[in-house]
Amino acid sequence: AYEIRPRDWSSDVCSSDLIKAILREAKVVLYDWHTEGGNVYSDFHGHDPATSSEAFVRYREDQETAGGSGSLVAPFAGEHGWYWLNVSNNPVTVTLNLTGYFDDTKDYGIH
Predict the structure, then answer these.
(1) pTM given for the model
(2) What is the C-alpha separation between 88 and 17, in angstroms, rounded?
């Protein structure tokens, strides 16, 4: 189903989170995210939970950034999303907006 789901995430200094969109193969998601308060390390990646949890595909990695936007056509069915780590000396809020053909979202809350 086509969904518009804004997603807000707040962090404390040096905390992290992992947000995933559940997509079927060849489905599309548009994303836009930005930070307030500082920069974060960002790892945009995907994996199929039915296979090894160690196997993943990295789409983009940024050592220190304040946001990103784009689209993804899922190369396989599975979880596709972002790991963020606060690399600033301040509390950071990350706001993520997802639009597209995804089944659900998961917040792994790995603070």
Answers:
(1) 0.85
(2) 15
